[in-house]
């Protein structure tokens, strides 16, 4: 469908959603769908919940965030279950400002933007629908029209609690425009929109000398004072501050802790009492979620100042740490690259993964337990199997520090390095080595890195480089075999047949001649030696494998190539050892003969077709692995 058609469709949809009627008619809607009267916090919570919740490893994963935020599942679970959910139930946390605290570029702004965009969309759905007094600059809740002394009766009839007072402006309009007839007051359905300043606001402090509190709470409209005769006539006031406009929805308070105190005092009363003071009016009720964000240093200095105590007790701090999983970090980069101008550059396979390894290493803290190193910890965190460790160890590791993920390299730095590599070198294809080089160069220019830290980071770059060497070698060797998995499986089956015969003191049958033959000791040893199983230990090793096989069989599972880490490693190494010479000779000769050339072309083609390379990156990979094997 072309874009004009879509625009027209959209207009049609918008028209369909609109609703306008009297307060009396609004009450009919309420009877049917009491949800439309929910509080701002409750609407946010329901929006998150409606997007779906998935149980993963006993944890709730909120799908609402999963398209944009990666690896923050635990932090988000805490945020939803310790703030949004109780706040939706009108518990006390609702009266606190939500302060997201986390390191730079850790996704705080992204999280807030998702909530805003989410609310805009949600207010257009059935369950997120919201109504307001027509013509009110603060989109006031129509239920405020019901006088206090009738609210208990209203609750008895509708089961809905009403909070807040009718604003000065609407009190006046009720008298003047509607002659006090509440049931006639016009109500309309509203749609949140930050651009149109409906239900979503952003406040960002500027120079405290020039910034006016009016930005938050609105101001007197001097041009209309003459008309209305007095400054205290609400019609002469513009309720257009961010707090006004964000009523019913949410307001983002950027750099809250950098803000001048006088701005913060308004928040005190708003959050605690649900109202704020503007101009010469009675307190104005507002119902909105206030989200602020900050980093750790700023937060520490804020709470160390005694003057801030009152505000501090009205803030609820939720940590937004860096992601600590390599595979999720890769997704972050993919997303950021997709959104950038360099999206069409070819990025060789494993490039982002290797960069992510470096980044995650800078964020992890050294394990306190002696028997695990940082690289293993990194793998465990990413959900990989690490021989000798299980999920209990993982939980223990996570408990060792409670501030892990609050420091280290941020994703924006990595993306900046990747783009500067691409732009400076005018490359159309980059690989892991390019990126590691660029990350290394960048450390010199990084503003906040001490010499000691730099040393540590350089070391992580070499660790990531070593990981890449392994990956690269395996990749090429795999591409040399016609079907790697197939070969590995055949070799493994062959080995297991021999082991079985050996342990049971049986003979095997030669598949060609049908003759009985002894187990192939040479074959078994050539595999076992790959992982250092000694002549003395071979019997125990083989028996252990047989026991594993029967344990698998008892559970009705098939023992295969992936069931035994060490055996898999042995098989892999054996296959590679057999291949090594071929690969070495083929990839490193300067003047390949016809046979070799054919093989190289075949391998390059396989790298391109099956492994996601292009011809530049495939050739670079072959050359690099050639040089590695010749060391
Ligand atoms: N866990 C994450 N998942 C997905 N994207 C992330 C994550 N962390 C950071 N990003 C990406 O990194 C970039 C910077 O994130 P964002 O601006 O949200 O961070 P921030 O915490 O607000 O940083 P700052 O403190 O500098 O304001 C964004 O493009 C964001 O999408
Ligand atoms: Mg930000």
TrEMBL record:
Name of the protein this chain belongs to: Serine protein kinase
Pfam families: AAA_PrkA (PF08298), PrkA (PF06798)
Keyword Metal-binding: no
Lineage: Bacteria, Bacillati, Bacillota, Bacilli, Bacillales
MF terms in GO: kinase activity
UniProt-listed InterPro entries: P-loop_NTPase, Prk_AAA, PrkA/YeaG, PrkA_C
Organism: Anoxybacillus andreesenii
Residue span, PrkA AAA domain: 21-371
Gene3D superfamilies attached to this UniProt entry: P-loop containing nucleotide triphosphate hydrolases
Swiss-Prot/TrEMBL keywords: Kinase, Transferase
């Amino acid at each position: 469908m072309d874009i004009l058609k879509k625009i027209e469709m959209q207009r049609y949809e918008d028209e369909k959603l609109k609703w306008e009627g009297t307060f009396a008619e609004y009450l009919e809607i309420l009877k049917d769908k009491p949800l439309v009267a929910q509080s701002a916090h409750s609407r946010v919570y329901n929006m998150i919940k409606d997007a779906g919740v998935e149980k993963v490893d006993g944890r709730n994963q909120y799908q609402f965030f999963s398209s944009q935020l990666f690896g923050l599942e635990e932090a988000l679970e805490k945020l939803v279950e310790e703030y949004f959910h109780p706040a939706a139930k009108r518990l006390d946390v609702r009266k606190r400002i939500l302060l997201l605290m986390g390191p730079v570029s850790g996704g705080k702004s992204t999280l807030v933007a998702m909530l805003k965009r989410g609310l805009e969309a949600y207010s257009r759905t059935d369950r997120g629908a919201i109504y307001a007094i027509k013509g009110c600059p603060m989109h006031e809740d129509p239920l405020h029209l019901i006088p206090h002394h009738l609210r208990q009766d209203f609750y008895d009839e509708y089961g809905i609690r009403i909070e807040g007072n009718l604003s000065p402006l609407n009190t006046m309009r009720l008298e003047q425009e509607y002659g006090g007839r509440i049931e006639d007051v016009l109500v309309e359905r509203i749609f949140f929109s930050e651009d149109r300043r409906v239900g979503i606001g952003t406040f960002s402090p500027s120079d405290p000398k020039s910034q006016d509190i009016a930005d938050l709470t609105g101001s007197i409209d001097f041009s209309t004072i003459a008309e209305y005769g007095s400054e205290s006539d609400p019609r002469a006031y513009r309720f257009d501050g961010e707090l006004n406009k964000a009523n019913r929805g949410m307001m983002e308070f950027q750099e809250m802790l950098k803000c001048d105190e006088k701005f913060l005092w308004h928040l005190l009363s708003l959050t605690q009492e649900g109202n704020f003071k503007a101009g010469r009016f009675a307190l104005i009720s507002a119902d909105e979620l206030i989200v602020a964000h900050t980093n750790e240093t700023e937060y520490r200095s804020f709470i160390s100042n005694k003057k801030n105590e009152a505000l501090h007790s009205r803030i609820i701090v939720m940590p937004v740490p860096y992601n600590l999983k390599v595979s999720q970090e890769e997704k972050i980069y993919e997303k950021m690259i997709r959104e950038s101008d360099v999206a069409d550059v070819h990025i060789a396979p494993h490039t982002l993964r290797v960069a992510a390894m470096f980044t995650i290493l800078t964020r992890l803290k050294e394990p306190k337990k002696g028997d695990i190193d940082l690289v293993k910890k990194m793998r465990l965190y990413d959900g990989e199997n690490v021989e000798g460790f299980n999920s209990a160890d993982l939980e223990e590791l996570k408990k060792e520090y409670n501030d892990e993920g609050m420091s280290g390299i941020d994703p924006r730095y990595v993306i900046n390095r990747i783009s500067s590599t691409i732009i400076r070198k005018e490359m159309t294809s980059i690989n892991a080595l390019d990126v590691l080089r660029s990350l290394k160069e960048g450390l010199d220019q990084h503003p906040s890195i001490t010499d000691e830290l730099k040393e540590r980071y350089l070391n992580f770059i070499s660790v990531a480089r070593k990981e890449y060497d392994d990956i690269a070698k395996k990749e090429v060797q795999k591409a040399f075999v016609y079907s790697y998995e197939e070969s590995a499986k055949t070799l493994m089956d062959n080995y297991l047949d021999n082991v079985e015969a050996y342990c049971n003191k049986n003979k095997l049958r030669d598949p060609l001649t049908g003759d009985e033959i002894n187990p192939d000791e040479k074959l078994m040893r050539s595999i076992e030696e790959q992982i250092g199983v000694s002549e003395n230990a071979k019997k125990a090793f083989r028996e252990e494998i047989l026991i594993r096989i029967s344990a698998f069989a008892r559970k009705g599972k098939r023992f295969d190539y992936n069931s035994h880490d060490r055996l898999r490693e042995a098989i892999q190494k054996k296959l590679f050892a057999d291949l090594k010479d071929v690969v070495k000779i083929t990839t490193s000769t300067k003047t390949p003969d016809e046979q070799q050339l054919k093989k190289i072309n075949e391998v390059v083609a396989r790298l391109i077709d099956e492994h996601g390379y292009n011809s530049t990156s495939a050739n670079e990979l072959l050359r690099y692995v050639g040089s590695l094997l010749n060391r």
